[in-house]
Amino acid sequence: MKQLNQLLNLQEAIKQAVDPLALIHRVVHEALELILRADGAAVELINDEGYLIYTSAGGLLEPYIGTKLEMGKSLSGLAISQSSILYSHNTQLDPRVDSKLCLQMKILSMICVPLYNKDKPVGALKVSSSLPFALKNEDIEGLTKLANFVSVVISAASDIANATTSLFSSFPLPVCPQEAKSLNTLNEFDSNKSNDITTFVANILSPGSVQNLKKRQRIENILKDNSITMLCQPILNLTTDKIMGVEALARFLKPPKRTPDVWFKEAHSVGLGEQLELLAVSMALELLDELPPHLSLALNVGPETVTTTEFLELIRNSPSNRIIVELTEHVEIHDYTNVKQSLIKLREIGVRLAIDDTGAGFASLAHILELNPELIKLDKDLTKGIDKDPIRRSLASSLVAFASESGSNIIAEGIETIEELKALQDLGIDFGQGFYLSHPVPLENIINQN
Fold first, then answer.
1. For the whole model, what pTM was predicted?
2. Rounded CA gap, 394 and 414, in Å?
């Protein structure tokens, strides 16, 4: 069943990649990008009755998708019959067009390019403007040069779509996963041959689809089986040497063996990042029942997950005053409004915010300025060798001063030597974590030591 679903998913990806309508939509979009003076574009295809149909449209013509034109009463039809590119500088004075319809559609000037498939007319590409005399000679020249190319790519997409449909129809596969449930065995079709052929076609027509499908299946398997275990790394008070909390860190149980950040990056690349983060959060929150009540639990989440209802509900159903949300940077934040609104709700129930990886780039500094965190985590690259590097110490010192003035506390990550620890203590850093203090370990190890 798994292999069958893979084949069906790959075939669907191929069909989308060679979908003629999708390509026609791209032609329309790019026509508007190319002809800057145009504010409308459409591809009109000839139907079985001999009419021109607005099959795809953009800009001011988008509302008119499906509009039917008579070949003999339109400039597009005339361009097709004359096998030449025609233009109208003012449709209200042009006897070749339906002036009332053009006025209704806000077409006061236009260029019509006939499209062919192996010398057979199939339709026309139209670009238009809501102003008379808006389209210039260079626009006409540009579309003239592209006429053959547009015709070829549209007809080629149609031919490829027909060829792939014919190829896949030779496989006795079920048409959908639901129908596949009736199969008792994959031996009812030549699965290996089908997979090889489908993969070959996918790699040519939809580069990356095979790899993306494999990525998605890996993440889906993790989500299905909850194949994550949680380790905890203590966060110590560098003055008292007491544990103030732990950071919950996900570890993945399925192959391939790789670091958690690679798993989460892959999940985001196939649209499953939020689901994977929410799974890790839910498993981390289960640790609160065993974690001593005076210790906090830090959770790593991206800004897109923080704004979800599912995340808020998970936190609300937990002792939220013990939770630290560490904001990580899986995607760039373009608008802080939603994140701020979500943080207001979280802070109302006692959650504290930590900004992760501070010092690693501008993103974390922007987060600090916009979100006013309770905790600022120094990136491990800033901590590494801080005892020997005056520039690192100067930057860390500036952040300590900033934190003091803003009411935040500093947590130094990645402490790996006693020299680094002493340098951070001399700078007045409040808290720290790292391999010198403790590796990530199962929670029971921390409880037994505490």
1. 0.65
2. 18
